[in-house]
Design brief:
Structural class: mainly alpha
Shape: globular
Number of strands: 0
Number of domains: 3
Distance between the termini: 32 Å
Number of helices: 19
Mean pLDDT: 87
Radius of gyration: 20 Å
Low-confidence stretches: none
């Protein structure tokens, strides 16, 4: 079946933009040949590199802000275009809430610790002009009020439900809201079977991260409450049983081969390295699921995931240049 004009236009546009991403080959060249002074020149062939080269940004905070704004532009490209299929728009609007979720969790940690953590300038709160107000909210009740005003009532409801509990609310229910909403949107779209599977994989990697960090740091009992329901190919029962093992044995309790490989790689590492291992395997797994798909929502999903990875990688390159680390060491932490 021939793609619709909108689908063909979207695919051509996103593919042309993706061709100017910071690719693995570009990172390999930079790692082999560049020093900090040459980095921007080596990135000029990419879209984000061209923009960095034209900017007068000073300091890490300005550069980070620029890169987050660049990422938000990629979401808005999909969400606001009248020429893109509705399914692609719907998925973009659901997935961008990932960053609102991250900001909710960061603000909860800030309140609990009495120390402000930076928020990510991507997502619904930023677009509604409420991110600064949210950064000053000093209780879950105040946070819920701002979230309702922003149209994020599903998260506000979870915070409100937890107001009577001692201490700060658990974040597991907030994670569940995001993953449940993303999967519900995906199932109703063209290519929904593949996309819903990809959403399940995202959920599994979130739970796998908790599991591997827990067994590495030996805090298994509290981690039982951190499982994000309902799970997908990594079930709650499997998660619970794996928690009772040591880091070197956890892989034996994991049935799905891809996740078992992640656990085996993490077994020799530390808790600090788990996030990097998870990010790398998650990206490779999702690339295998989505990169060759032609359904517009899948094309949009893969574009957003690849741009998210590109921003992560560019931040690492810039940090390495600023701090005097080797680019090869930074490359080992990248998602390629």
């Amino acid at each position: 079946m021939m793609p619709s004009p909108k689908a063909a236009f979207m695919t051509a546009l996103l593919q042309s933009r993706a061709a100017k991403n910071v690719t693995a080959d570009a990172v390999a060249r930079i790692s082999a040949n560049a020093d900090g002074n040459e980095l921007r020149e080596n990135l000029r062939g990419t879209d984000v590199g061209r923009r960095l080269g034209e900017s007068t940004l000073q300091g890490r905070r300005e550069r980070d802000g620029f890169l987050w704004e660049y990422l938000d532009e990629q979401f808005l490209l999909i969400e606001e275009s009248p020429f893109f299929p509705r399914g692609a728009v719907s998925f973009g609007r659901a997935y961008v809430r990932k960053f609102d979720l991250a900001n909710i969790k960061a603000r909860l940690r800030s309140i609990a610790a009495g120390k402000a953590l930076p928020l990510i300038p991507v997502g619904i709160l930023r677009r509604r002009g409420l991110l600064d107000d949210f950064a000053e909210a000093d209780s879950s009740e105040d946070m819920a009020e701002i979230l309702r005003f922003a149209g994020l009532g599903e998260y506000a409801a979870e915070l409100s439900a937890a107001e009577d509990a001692p201490g700060m609310p658990e974040t597991t229910s907030l994670d569940a809201v995001f993953h449940r909403g993303l999967a519900a949107v995906a199932r109703g779209l063209e290519g929904g079977t593949v996309l819903a599977h990809a959403c399940g994989v995202l959920l599994d990697y979130a739970n796998l991260s908790v599991l591997l960090r827990a067994v590495s740091g030996d805090w298994g009992a509290p981690a039982e409450k951190q499982f994000i329901p309902p799970g997908y190919m990594l079930s709650g029962q499997e998660f619970k049983e794996a928690l009772s093992t040591g880091a070197k044995d956890v892989a034996k309790r994991i049935e799905y081969p891809a996740y078992r490989s992640v656990a085996e790689e993490a077994a020799a590492g530390t808790s600090a390295g788990v996030d990097e291992i998870i990010a790398k395997h998650r990206f490779i797994h999702l690339r295998g699921l989505l990169a060759a798909q032609v359904a517009p929502p899948c094309v949009a999903a893969w574009y957003l995931l690849s741009k998210e990875a590109e921003v992560r990688n560019t931040r690492l390159l810039l940090k390495a240049a600023e701090d005097g680390f080797s680019f090869e060491a930074a490359r080992r932490c990248m998602v390629l």
